[in-house]
Amino acid sequence: MVDFADLTLADVQRGLLEGRFSGSSLLDHYLHRIRETSYLNAFLEVYEAEARQKMEALDQKIKDAPESLGKLFGCVFSVKDMIVLKAHEVTAGSRILNGFKSMFTATLLQRMLDEDAIIIGRTNCDEFGMGSANLHSYYGPVGNAQDPHRVSGGSSGGAAVSVQAGTCLLAIGTDTGGSVRQPAAMTGTVGFKPGYGMVSRFGLVAYASSFDQAGIIARSPADIDRVMEVISVADANDATMKTKGLYATQSAAVKDKCRVACFAEAIEGAGVNQEVRQRFNDFVHHLTEAGHEVVSVEFGLLEYLVPTYYILTTAEASSNLSRYDGVRYGYRSSEAGNIHDLYIQSRSEGFGTEVKKRIMLGSFVLSEGYYDAYFSKAQKVRTLVRNRIEAIFSDFDFVALPTSPVAAWKKDEKQTNPLSEYMADIYTVLASLAGTPAVSVPAGNNSEGLPLGIQLIANSGDDKKLVKFTEHITNWHNF
Ligand code: GLN
């Protein structure tokens, strides 16, 4: 009996080619795990019949024409409910898109499908990606497989749990301010956000367009590397895509002695849980033992990161979400007697509280009287953050930070104070403001057995170097 739980994509492909197991038996295993863990609410829809049909065709191809197999054959993955697949429902975790089916497939998914990867289902998430705990989905919260009473992290909570619970090999999520990295940290998985412009956003439901990126959650960084080779390809449908310096052309070389910066004020901060701090210090110790050089530097802008992020993203969201009017997509109120009421009623009934709060905040910071005081100032701070991080990378290979100041909290905690949920994003929004690649790496469990993560950030254009360094680190089994 093969234990599918710990296999990397390379193991799966070897096993399939050597005939040790069939694709269909692998898929059966995943479908069985989905049923066994359905109480976690990670999946909104399972494409069972379709996946079976594709897998049978793949098994046939392995027998008949192994030379024509795509680069991702045997890769069974889940897709966050923020990325469109032709003729399939996509709701962004919202009532307002309930029943909406896409007319096209996102570029990154198409690339993966073209290389023989198979989608197993659509995963739950915070409404329009707005949240850090997956408590803001219209379709209910996602439980952490380690303790179902605790949150999965968010907004890609379903994606992270789909990997944590062993229901697929890897997951595609989206990350605007940490939504791939933070749930990865809370589920003991690896979560990678590519640099801005490395992967096409065509087919992503927009939250804040100058921040949004598709990302990958996996058990092994080697799998992330394989997928990035396939999805980081220029796309004429996304004008913000880079055309040069894409993943496959980047250097994979990692120096024996890397220079890693960490920010003293981030580690010593009052909001950081003691065990998170301890684990981070252990990590620094391991880095040093392995011959790398870790230097504590002052970042200087830490307290501005969360406010800047929330001003800019709510502004962009208020504009992006204006398209949901009850006429063109999904949900339409049946109460309205005229067109004006139709807009108001559909939006009032279709959007959840968190989304409404952000639309109001975004409209406020963009309003004539407050634009200069908030939006335009936040843009200036974003430039300062970018300049600062650029200066740091002129001297360092990576920046190391905890991914989250705390481990997964109980589902009923934090409800009374929304600001504390926003503050939990303090370490992840940096790479989103700067547009740089970043990854969350599992860093063992705390004393309650809950996963913790360490985040590494690299300079723009160093996505591959970051993934390769992550491979190097995850080989330290005792860390
Ligand atoms: N928690 C952050 C927010 O609510 C990040 C979300 C994300 O990356 N999609 O905006």
Verbal overview:
The chain has an eleven-stranded mixed beta sheet, with helices on both faces. The longest helix has 19 residues, at 302-320. The chain is of the alpha/beta class and 479 residues long. It has a domain at 9-249: Amidase signature (AS) domain (Amidase signature (AS) enzymes), CATH 3.90.1300. 38% of the residues lie in helices and 14% in strands. The structure holds glutamine. Residues 129-132, 155, 175-179, 207, 313, 425 line the site of glutamine.
Could you give a quick summary of the protein structure above?
The chain is of the alpha/beta class.
Keywords:
479 residues; alpha/beta; Amidase signature (AS) enzymes; 11-stranded mixed sheet; two-stranded antiparallel sheet; globular; binds glutamine
* CATH topology (fold) name of one domain: Amidase signature (AS) enzymes
Give the CATH superfamily of one domain.
Amidase signature (AS) domain
Q: Give a list of the ligands.
A: glutamine
Give unreliable regions as ranges: none
